[in-house]
Design goal:
The protein has 168 residues and is mainly alpha-helical. It is built from four helices and three strands; from the N terminus they run αβαααββ. Helix 2 packs across helix 3 and helix 3 runs antiparallel to helix 4. The two termini are 54 Å apart.
Length: 168
């Protein structure tokens, strides 16, 4: 009987030792954020998109104007090529001059298009980094205020409290 009481007492303390720490543990709060949805639906994300659309529209309008100039030169060359066979040396020189001018305009338009594409990409990256930084600051503030242990997105961790960070 004495062994049974000792056996039950030992098991009781083992059970208490295993179960009790779980009652005292903090509730783990982990959040997941869809940053793309935040950028798509937030005021800041919409503002960024609108600004990029305005920039794109300006670039497109400029390229379209260059395209119209090229189209006019092509039409002029077509007219000159028809009359080139029948008319004088002056007409042939004008044809050559216009053809050269057309090649230069096409080359300039292609370079301008490349420049605009690079400028647009740089501006898009710059604005995306800025917007993402602000969103991450807001998420960190919410995480700290609400007591989250971890907030993640698809690319990685957006927030974790400093006391839980372990560096090697």
């Amino acid at each position: 009987m004495r062994n049974l009481k000792l056996f039950l007492l030992v098991h009781f303390f083992i059970i208490i030792a295993v179960i009790m720490p779980s009652y005292g543990a903090d509730v783990t709060k982990i959040g997941v954020v869809d940053t793309q949805k935040v950028l798509d639906t937030s005021i800041l994300g919409n503002q960024m998109t609108n600004e990029l659309n305005k920039l794109y529209t300006g670039f497109s309008a400029d390229l379209e104007a260059k395209g119209k100039e090229i189209q006019k030169l092509q039409e002029e060359i077509e007219k000159l090529s028809l009359s080139k066979k029948t008319l004088s040396q002056a007409n042939k020189e004008k044809f050559d001059k216009t053809t050269r001018e057309l090649r230069i305009k096409i080359y300039d338009a292609e370079k301008l298009k490349e420049k605009y594409q690079n400028d647009f990409k740089k501006e898009e990256i710059k604005r995306l980094k800025y917007t993402t930084k602000i969103v991450e600051e807001i998420i960190a503030e919410i995480g700290k205020k609400e007591g989250y242990l971890l907030i993640k997105n698809t690319r990685g961790t957006l927030y974790s409290p400093k006391k839980n960070r372990h560096y090697r």
